[in-house]
Fold:
Amino acid sequence: MNDTRMIVPIRDVKVRREVLLPTGQETSRPGRILIVDDERGIQDFLLFGLRDEGFDVATASDGEEALQVLEIFRPHIVLLDIMLPGMDGFEVCRLMKERSRVSIIMLTAKEEVDDRVRGLSAGADDYVVKPFAFVELKARIEARLRGQFPELTSVHRIGKFEIDKVQRLIRYEGRALGLSRTEFSLLELLLEKPGVARSREEIMQRVWGQDFHGEDNILEVYIRYLRHKLNDTKRQLIRTVRGVGYRVEVQ
Structure:
């Protein structure tokens, strides 16, 4: 599904802003993000969107507050607006880079090349001009996390599938499938070698174990569950290989 949300001011949204301290609890997507922007509508838009994606999120409205939150919240990514009251985003960027290994994505309504060069010279890692689609921002955040914080990355991409082994979560086309433990194990196994047929015997042994004494058609039942959750009504994703077993097709 295409995410067409755009970063535009939202005037009527009311939300209690807070600095979220790390709790040690896992989220569906690892990574802490600090939003530094003095426009409340943009803060709220990003806050809701990024929390919905599973990130821990904190906000700040000016440079001084942002530097204080940096020490407390210890973000991995900072979304930093250039036009801030008092200390501008360039100076905030420089100071943050002196104090932390944080990755900084500059947000600005300006398109001038000089501003981009100045931001990158101050230590910014990426640069996004408003307005932009939320899906673009999310992709840039994930790229920064993969590149600068590989220890956070538990997601493996196979075609349109994303497998998060730490969270035991599989997404297809960006949509979490909501799998049970057994469904996850079965689909994970099939995705180990996409396009290669797994025999029924191998699947049964690795997913249910040698000592399984349940129904003979249990594998067929769970394949049906997976096809339903993938909307694979034409059986184009999970294919039955007659006389062998099943394979997953990825694009």
Remarks:
- Residues 7-28 have pLDDT under 50 and may be disordered.
- The two ends are 16 Å apart (CA to CA).
- DSSP finds eight helices and twelve strands in the chain.
- Residues 134-148 form the longest helix (15 residues).
